[in-house]
Write a structure and sequence with these properties.
two-stranded antiparallel sheet, about 50% helix, 6 helices
């Protein structure tokens, strides 16, 4: 379950809230994290692939710890990961991150404004800390005792 040097992948499952600003922030943060900030340590899994029963997506969620990013209080990403038996290391709610960063006022759906992009980056910063801590903790099979 580890990827070289004792590091394990962390699955990132963002909201699919199409047509919703916070859903777009969720996906933007997931792309930034998995493509730019922590590409070696993370794997993006689309919520839609889990809903459709994609074998590879479900295997990733079953194998590695997941971080979910929900755009609203329905918490669809978190619920779906748990429903298929995955482990949610932590769930992030875009609205909670916004409450801590009210200076970033997100707008837009297909394309976020500067405030939305800054909010996505704030979310990435919080999640990256967790990814790093998960990768410094011993993997399940590596624990003594």
């Amino acid at each position: 379950m580890t990827e070289g040097c004792g590091r394990q992948k962390v699955v990132i499952v963002p909201c699919s809230g199409i047509g919703k600003t916070y859903g777009t922030v969720s996906r933007e943060a997931a792309y930034l994290l998995t493509e730019e900030t922590r590409p070696e340590e993370t794997q993006l899994v689309a919520l839609s692939m889990l809903v459709l029963g994609d074998d590879a997506a479900r295997a990733a969620v079953s194998t590695y710890p997941a971080i979910t990013i929900d755009g609203c209080k329905l918490a669809c990403a978190t619920k779906m990961v748990k429903e298929i038996g995955g482990t949610v290391a932590q769930d992030f709610a875009v609205l909670d991150v916004y409450r801590r960063n009210k200076q970033f006022k997100p707008q837009g759906i297909s394309e976020l404004n500067e405030g939305g992009l800054q909010l996505a980056q704030a979310l990435v910063s919080e999640i990256a800390v967790l990814v790093d801590s998960l990768n410094t903790a011993p993997a399940e099979g590596d624990r003594d005792g």
